[in-house]
Amino acid sequence: MKSIVKIIQAQPTQDGAGVKLFRSLGTHLLPELNPFLMLDEIRADEASDYLAGFPSHPHRGFETVTIMLDGKMRHRDSRGNEGVIESGGVQWMTAGSGIVHSEMPEQSEGRLWGFQLWVNLPAEHKMMSPRYQDIKAAEIPVVNFPGAQVRVMAGTVHNHTGPVTDIVTRPTLLDVHLDGELNLTLPPRTLLYVYEGALTIGEQTARAQQLAVLSEESSLTMTGNAKALVFGADVLNEPIARHGPFVMNTREQLMRAFEDYQSGQFG
């Protein structure tokens, strides 16, 4: 059975044009756990904390996953994609060889609550063509258990397969609403982020705004009253060369990414 190896408390920070958020993966406490590179939670009731948004910025060599619980964000990118991510929706963007995009609030008041997860690409796929999957809440299957409800965004739970497809790291991405006990089969590399309440795995308890790194066994049993993101994928045993919005395998590739972006070759 999976157990909790480490618990990380999310740290307050700012990103974009000053958006206030909480970062649990991608800090000095846990810089990355390949293929997972970063996890941010945005939870703000005051518009001044999020209105500046995330103006146009580049990415290369990895994927961004945006999950909205409450509110609306508009995505635009240099490939001509545009769409609004609304409550319950998810967007999986593969930056690949390079893309420039913006993510801006589509609201001027009310709560904005969601997450962004960064997922690495294997070396052989880092320069793949960029692409974009925009999934509405109604397209996400919901699996009901006696002690939980599970929204399956990617991966398969009890023969229900999520709508995010053709991702090379074969991810599992679940939104779990727990009210009792739940048993799941998950990839060896799995993390869990509690965003409401508390849950127990084995002898340890993870609480709201805590990231739990899980051991490599396949079976997970959790109990409690909580809401949590569960995400797993294939392990990438490859070097990481990372700076800002670019994630490559070598310093030379990283420098090339900056050069290509500055010369207008992205998107």
UniProtKB/TrEMBL annotation:
GO MF term list: metal ion binding
Under the heading SUPFAM superfamilies, the entry gives: RmlC-like cupins
| Protein keywords | Iron, Metal-binding
**InterPro entries found in the cross-reference section:** Pirin (IPR012093), Pirin_C_dom (IPR008778), Pirin_N_dom (IPR003829), RmlC-like_jellyroll (IPR014710), RmlC_Cupin_sf (IPR011051)
Name the coenzymes or cofactors required: Fe cation
Spell out the family assignment given in the record's similarity comment. Belongs to the pirin family.
Name used for this protein in its record: Pirin family protein
